[in-house]
Amino acid sequence: MNQNTPELRSQTAAALESARPRLSQLQAFLGLDGFVDEILHVVDKRYSAERYDRTPTIARLAERLAAAAGKSTNLELVTQLTKLGGNGPIMGNALAQLGLRVTYVGNLGYPNLHPVFEEFARRAEVHSIAPPGLTDALEFEDGKIMLGKHSSLKEITWENIVQRYGRDRFAAKFASADLVAFVNWTMLPYMSDIWAAVLREICPQLPTHGPRRTLFFDLADPEKRTSEDIRRALDLILEFRRYFNVILGLNEKEAYEIARVFGLERGDGSRAAVAALAREIHQRVPVHTLVVHPVAYALCVSEGRLSIVDGLYTTKPRLTTGAGDHFNSGFCLGKLLGFSDDQALLTGVTTSGYYVIKAQSPTVDDLIRALRNWPSTTSGPYLF
């Protein structure tokens, strides 16, 4: 069921090598969120001012919190890194590192850019229309817990886009970019209204024939949104099919949330069950490509065909916040370059895996080296 073979890795590395001259010609237009992420470890046991054991798993933290019910407890958080955050900035920054020409609109500081986004602004054309959100990202070996402060995201409205960025500029970028990406729907309360405005005011001027450009959507953990809101978002996403090749990206948890909305059985969590669920979701949300990326592999359904590829997975990640956004950047790059679904999935999981292992965004040369030096085990060695 897994198509990740040495032959596929060799073919994908060669395809990336030959595509290198085209990368700077590809344009991406992304939005609309923006966060300052503080990456934190939770202290399990402290031995001295400098030495402590990190709480290794979410399950261990859950046990500690459950034991405090009816009493109280305190948790010590140790900052590991403060970095740019939000699905859009991370994905946009990753695409810029891969060599694309990126334009980004979102809430990265207003009226002045927040310093954490200054490096991104040197790599890309960045426009901010509101202050950033704030996220405390508690990282564990088996996942992460994102604690967000989202009040500034209420300023991401169509009216503010028009007033602070400009309808004409938005329309020009939207009409010319090879890749358009709208991400983090869940945290942006007016995103559906923005999509409706774009469909009403911008899309009627777009051609419905000729080369098809790519439009990528990421809902970003919609558990807290109502089923009615989610259905409306999915209906709006489907309306864009007239103008774009539409990709909907989901992680495993997000796939289960969409399944809940449609009353689908989630299954036993096996690969076969996730694949079957992806097919059922695609039948109800017939975008051009539905992609689902659990932690250790990724799959997609496109034109009735299912592809599944094992990831560049490690049992000891250095940084997981942003891993899914890096997968999305790599997968979209593969689709832009005309790769097969298998190759696009492999490009996605390699981009994500490199980021998790190295704690930095890869270049295309980094991806080529990773594909040609694929580790034989999840503990390395990592010769890239």
Structure description:
With 384 residues, the chain is α/β, with parallel strands linked by helices. Strand 2 (35-46) and strand 3 form a beta hairpin. Helix 1 packs across helix 12 (341-358). The chain is built from 13 helices and 14 strands. The strands form two sheets. The chain has a nine-stranded mixed beta sheet with strand order 6-5-1-9-10-11-12-13-14, sandwiched between helices. Strands 2, 3, 4, 7 and 8 form a five-stranded mixed beta sheet that branches. It has one domain: Ribokinase (UDP-N-acetylmuramoyl-L-alanine:D-glutamate ligase, 3-Layer(aba) Sandwich), CATH 3.40.1190.
Q: How many distinct folded domains?
A: 1
- The total of beta strands comes to 14
Unreliable runs: none
Q: From N to C, what is the helix and strand string? A: HEEEHEHEHEEEHHEHEHEHHEEEHHH
With helices defined by DSSP (H or I, 4 residues minimum), what is the helix count? Answer: 13
State the major sheet. 9 strands, mixed
Q: Roughly how much helix do the residues carry, as a percent range?
A: 25-40%
Looking at this structure, what is the CATH superfamily? Answer: Ribokinase
Biggest sheet, spatial arrangement of strands: 6-5-1-9-10-11-12-13-14
Whole-number mean pLDDT: 96
